[in-house]
């Protein structure tokens, strides 16, 4: 599967010919200043929670591309109020089928609020099953035993985990999470953007290797192919 990293926790996956974008925060990320959001393709946009660094560019990209935006009920209501017409709710435990395949929403252990401090529902992650491969994006989360349920539902090809620590899992817990969901390939996100979440990337890769896991840390704007 082709995965393109746009910085922080934003990435896209091409599956069944569809461009699936996650947590677009680009225009406000100085590390992603070389990315032109007007060139990003999206048929679907998944939003894991209400923090600004996961949804800043949702409305702009959705208005231009006509993408369907998916998130928890509170996000669904919020984006409708922003004038978006193609919005679909999906709460933790819920599953829905689209032309790229099936998505199941799962809980994330994290806070969630809008920029004005109002309630944005609970944080969540997404498990996608497609003809081209299966993967889990945890969203912002701490390590949780709920992750051990995922292999009961699906065989994953890879997972996307935050590794920046302080605000989410760090490297050590992300390694444990990979073992919980039974993957040996992980794409790391949510690191280096802010001072609180700076990491040593070489050291992170080595720590994953000690557990016989592969950690991918693509450059912003880089695309990689994940094999099944």
UniProtKB/TrEMBL annotation:
Alphabetical list of InterPro entries matching this protein: Metallo-B-lactamas, RibonucZ/Hydroxyglut_hydro, UPF0173_UPF0282_UlaG_hydrolase
Transmembrane segments: none
Residue span, Metallo-beta-lactamase domain: 7-190
Alphabetical keyword list: Hydrolase
Signal sequence, renumbered to the chain: none
Pfam families membership: Lactamase_B_3 (PF13483)
Keyword Hydrolase: yes
Gene3D superfamilies membership: Ribonuclease Z/Hydroxyacylglutathione hydrolase-like
Molecular function GO labels: hydrolase activity
Name recorded for this polypeptide: Hydrolase
